[in-house]
Write a structure and sequence with these properties.
Number of strands: 4
Strand order of the largest sheet: 1-2
Distance between the termini: 42 Å
């Protein structure tokens, strides 16, 4: 997910935020190409981080050059497929800064609409939405997760399937669950707010391990998340 055309690269947190916002798809609205490609025995990630205002002084849209720090900031980056990255840089006159920034906002809103990330009127409604993400993640973990006996079988396809489903489903579901909790923070109890923050650290550490390939264990999944927005825990 490195940008090969610019000279300033973002930190790990920014990379993870870009991935979360993309939902696994190119952020150009008339493209939306999946950024994961399944091959016969492997899954590759084709996303490229594109600088909205070029990192170099003579690059695309470089008439407005931010500071060295800003060039690598989240606000100056967008996640695209290789074709769209090339297109916006080679035809920069057709892709001004404001247009590209609008893609990021609309893409995020599109994901929120698709997954029902809305402000709820009561805990019951929020619980119903949260269960969608929790249920799907639980089924995947129980079916493909690393704790099964198949982890000892070197010829088993499950480890690769687990890695693919982690990137395709679990990580995006985690981010959508966090967005749901943040949008409905006023419906959470004080104890649940602490649980959400523990879950947020778990999500960040999980992304660092599976996206950035950092060799860390990090915060374990807080089991209290299973009961988030539950009426009996209010």
């Amino acid at each position: 997910m490195e940008c090969t055309k610019g000279r300033v690269n973002p930190d790990t947190t920014t990379k993870l935020r870009l991935f979360a916002d993309s939902g696994g798809f190119c952020q150009k609205p008339d493209c939306l190409r999946p950024l994961f490609k399944d091959l016969e025995d492997d899954t590759i990630y084709i996303a490229e981080m594109a600088h909205i205002i070029a990192a170099s002084g003579d690059g695309p849209r470089s008439d407005k050059i931010p500071s060295e720090t800003d060039k690598a900031a989240y606000s100056n980056l967008i996640l695209l497929c290789p074709s769209c990255h090339t297109e916006i840089d080679k035809a920069e006159i057709h892709y001004p800064v404001d247009l590209i920034l609008s893609w990021k906002t609309e893409h995020r809103n599109r994901l929120h609409r698709a997954f029902g990330i809305i402000k709820c009127t009561d805990r019951h409604s929020a619980r119903h939405l949260a269960q969608r993400f929790l249920r799907e993640n639980k089924v995947i973990f129980e079916t493909y997760g690393p704790m099964g006996d198949e982890r000892f079988n070197p010829e088993s396809p499950l480890p690769k399937l687990w890695s693919m489903k982690m990137l395709d489903t679990i990580l995006p579901n985690n981010r959508n669950l966090l967005s749901l909790c943040d949008a409905n923070e006023d419906l959470l109890t004080n104890r649940e707010l602490v649980t959400v923050e523990r879950f947020r650290q778990h999500v960040a550490d999980l992304e660092a391990r599976h996206i950035s390939r950092l060799d860390i264990c990090g915060q374990i999944y807080p089991p209290e998340m299973d009961d988030i927005f539950d009426e009996e825990t209010a």
